C-alpha cells in the first residue's frame, strides 16, 4: 500500500494507474483474498480511513466525470460505509478515464465459501455436458460455472478443448472447475448407455424438444459450432434456441445456460 500523501503528489496518468492498482489490492484485502505481501498494513490509520483518503484524491481528478464524482461522494457520505463497493466504483471510474476496461478474469471476485470447507455437491443424477473444442478459457470457465450452479453431474471435454486449469478459465469459473472436475474424452469414448443430443442451429425448437431424464448435451466451438462427427454421435437429436435478432447469435456460455434451465424445468415438471 502507498501513503496517500505520496499518491497525491504523483502526476495525472501515473497517479491514476497507481490508484487503480491500490484500489484493486484493497478490494482483495477486504474480500479476504489478498495476495501475499499486499495485505493492508498501515498502522497510522484504519483501512476504512485509508480508502476514504484515496477516494478524495480521485475526486480531485479534473478528468473525473460529474456523474462519477456524485456517485463517489454519495458512497463516502453513507452511514454504513461500504469499503469494497467504494473501492470497486473508484477503480472502475479510474480505468474508464485511463481507457482500460477489465475482462471478467481481471475482476476482483471473492470465493463464495470459506477455504477449507468441504461441502457435498447436490446435482441432478445423469445430467452431463460435453464441451467440444471450446477455445476461449473464459467460455470454458463460464460453462463449468453454469454446470455446477445448475446442478449438472459431470463435465466432459474434448481433446481440442482449452485446458480448464488455464488461469483465465479458473478465474471465470469461480472455483467451480475445482469443485466439479472433468474428464477429457473423445466422442467415441462417451458412455453408450445414455442419450446424447446437441445444442445447434437447425434442430427442434427449445420449447418443443423432449428432454431426456438423463443424458449428455454436446455444445460446440465458438467458431464452427458442433462438428459433423458430434452431430452423428448425437443420436437422441438436436435442439435449437429460437432467436429474432438480425445476427441470431449467442455466446456459447449464454446458450448453454438457457439450454440447461430448460432441461431442468422439463425434469421438474415431469419427474
Please describe the topology of this protein.
Elements: H1 4-9, H2 12-31, H3 47-59, H4 66-77, H5 83-98, E1 127-131, H6 137-150, E2 154-157, H7 167-173, H8 176-180, E3 183-184, E4 196-205, E5 215-219, H9 228-233, E6 237-240, H10 252-269
Parallel strand pairs: 1-2, 1-5, 2-3, 4-5, 4-6
Helix pairs in contact: 2-3, 2-5, 3-4, 3-5, 4-5, 6-7, 6-10
Description:
The structure is a single chain. The protein is of the alpha/beta class. Helix content is 43%, strand content 11%. Helix 2 runs antiparallel to helix 5, helix 6 runs parallel beside helix 7 and helix 6 packs parallel to helix 10. The longest helix is centred in the N-terminal third of the chain and has 20 residues.
Secondary-structure-derived class = alpha/beta
Share of helix, binned: 40-55%
Q: Low-confidence spans: pLDDT under 50, at least 5 residues?
A: none
Question: Could you give the order of strands across the largest sheet?
Answer: 3-2-1-5-4-6
Distance between the termini: 56 Å
Overall outline: elongated
The largest sheet is: 6 strands, parallel
Which percent range describes the beta-strand content?
Answer: 5-15%
Q: Name the helix and strand elements from N-terminus to C-terminus, one letter apiece.
A: HHHHHEHEHHEEEHEH
Q: Helix segment count?
A: 10
Report the mean per-residue pLDDT as an integer: 89
Rg over alpha carbons = 23 Å
For the secondary structure, the number of strands is 6
